[in-house]
Amino acid sequence: MSNWSIHIKHRRKTIGEIQLTKGILQGDSLSPLLFVLVMEPLSRQLNSDSRETNHLLYVDDIKLMADTEVGLKQLLRKTIQHTGAMGLEINRDKSATNTPQCEGEYTKLLREEEGYKYLGVYEDRDSQQTKETKETVTAKILKRVERLCDSSLNARNLTHAINEFAISVINYYAGLVEYTESEARELDKKIRSVLLRKKVHEKGAATERLYLPRRENGRGLRNVENQTELAMLGLWEHLQRRSERSDECKRVIATEERRSTPLAKIKETLLVKYNETKTQAVLRRDTRRAILEEYRGRAALSKEEEDELQSLKDTTQETDADLINQRWGRRQIVERQKAELVRKITEKVLHRKSLITTDYIDTVDATLWLRHGNQSPQAEARLVGVQDRNIVRTGKKCPHCRKGALAVEHLATKCTTQ
User: Fold this and answer.
1) Of 124, 140, 175, which residue is a domain's last?
2) Which of 22, 39, 149, 262 could join 198 via S-S bond, C-beta 3.0 to 4.6 A?
3) What would the pLDDT profile of 176-222 be if each residue is shown by its tens digit?
4) What residues contact residue 121 under an 8 Å CB cut-off, 6+ apart?
5) Rounded CA gap, 227 and 323, in Å?
6) 73 and 54 in contact (C-beta within 8 Å)?
7) Are 57 and 95 within one domain?
8) Is residue 171 part of a domain?
9) Residue 381: exposed, middle, or buried by beta-carbon count in 10 A (0-12, 13-18, 19+)?
10) Rounded to an integer, what distance in angstroms lies between the CA atom of residue 405 and that of residue 397?
11) d(CA 33, CA 30)
């Protein structure tokens, strides 16, 4: 310690030196590492007294758990002895207990209506999660999305910022907080409401296209529902890998399976949800066939188009039943999620026409403006709305013939008065 010192520089010149005589400064990169090393013996000592999980420790946040009040008091006493020996003090204002036997100099007693927050999760005095956690997460994400939409970022950078700064918040809570499929969809809906209000997304545009990658003619926004599935799958696979050499992970898995939580059923849920989803190649092929059949109903097709249509009809439909025995990793799930978005687009008569379904269209060049363009989010939203054949609100009539719907298809090919 006598050899440690801090040099103060101003404009590349050393203007002073501070000799360290006791400890290191808060914020020093060495500080958290030293703190973890100091607390690690306490964790080992508590673990040696029980085969069950009796504490959670993250840097300076510790949560003690026991089956009885006497057992909890013993854990608290050992913790106080260890921290005292290390020169640390327990902050009573930030410490609480739900048993009267542990109330005293170091902890205060929680009242019936009181709760606490541990590592960002709100729990009541019985350590049951409260709805306040989900409300806080939702408010945090929406606030960040709104702040980013008010910035001067271009469309591509705005999408990236929303993904990394706002929607990524859900990664921490997925699996820890039990989000149902409907709750994740509702959060997606609230995010889209903010985008609509800020004119970053058009009401008539395809919702699913908002979540497709930009290289696939989408806008690249992350979907909370899909992101939650991936985060939970990753957490469950991590626990399973670690369970081979960690009793803690084995106990977590056993508890989750006993409670039949969404985390424990994530693989089964994904298998049921995506097993019947066709691949993107099949979906685009079916869409191309439907479009050609629609055109043939209005006018004669060229010989090349007739041959293409016949070839599509003769192609055997791909089946995905063999996927049930495959390993469902992150890559497979991502592909199925994208295919599900494409499937929903193909079910919409107008929106499906924006899909690139033919080989003679260069996907790289067709999506160049989405991948590298410098357009504003509002301009991009309007252009995507035009591509999706929805530039006006439902119910509007053509101002020329006053008969047909005011849409791209009508204006481009059907209005006889122009």
Assistant:
1) 124
2) 149
3) 888 888 999 999 999 999 999 999 998 888 899 999 999 988 999 99
4) 129, 133, 173, 176, 177
5) 22
6) no
7) yes
8) yes
9) buried
10) 5
11) 5
User: Two tokens at 88?
Assistant: 């640390």
Residues 165 and 236 placed together within one structural domain of the fold: yes
- Under a CB-based contact definition with an 8 Å cutoff, are residues 262 and 232 in contact? yes
Pair 148, 268 in one domain: yes
Claim to verify: residue 48 and residue 153 sit in the same structural domain: no
Name the token pair of 155.
Answer: 């469309």
Q: How far apart are CA 102 and CA 80, in angstroms?
A: 12
What's the whole-model pTM score? 0.72
One domain for residues 187 and 248: yes
Neighbours of 111 (CB within 10 A): 10
Give per-residue pLDDT as tens, 69-123.
Answer: 888 889 988 988 888 888 888 888 888 888 888 888 788 888 877 888 888 888 8
**Count: domains in the chain:** 4
Please report whether residue 14 resides in a domain. no
Q: Pick the last residue of a domain from 102, 124, 146.
A: 124
With respect to residue 373, please indicate whether it lies within any of the assigned structural domains: no
**Segments of the chain scoring below 50 in pLDDT:** 316-326, 392-393
Alpha-carbon distance of 38 to 372, in angstroms, equals 50
Q: Are 217 and 356 in contact (CB under 8 A)?
A: yes
Cα–Cα distance for residue pair 374/372, rounded to 1 Å: 7
The counts of H helices and E strands in the chain are 16, 8
- 115-118 and 108-109 beta bridge pairing: unpaired
- CA-to-CA distance for 120 and 79, rounded, in angstroms? 23
Residue type, 77: R
Report the sign of the C-alpha dihedral through residues 80, 86, 90, 95, in that order.
negative
CB 187 within 8 A of CB 199: no
Strand partners, 129: 123
* Token pair belonging to 147: 């702040």
The single-letter code of the amino acid at 276 is E
Tell me the two tokens of residue 162: 């929303």
DSSP string, 230-295: HHHHHHHHHHHHHTTT-HHHHHHHHHHHHHT-TTTTHHHHHHHHHTTPPPHHHHHHHHHHHHHHHH
Say yes or no: 164 and 200 in one domain: yes
**Which domain does 65 fall in, by range?**
30-124
Query: For residue 61, what is the enclosing H or E element?
Result: strand 61-64
Amino acid identity of 283? L
Identify whether residues 115 and 137 lie together within a single domain.
no
**Residue 34, domain member (yes or no):** yes
57-to-46, 53, 65, 174 alpha-carbon distances in Å: 11, 11, 11, 20
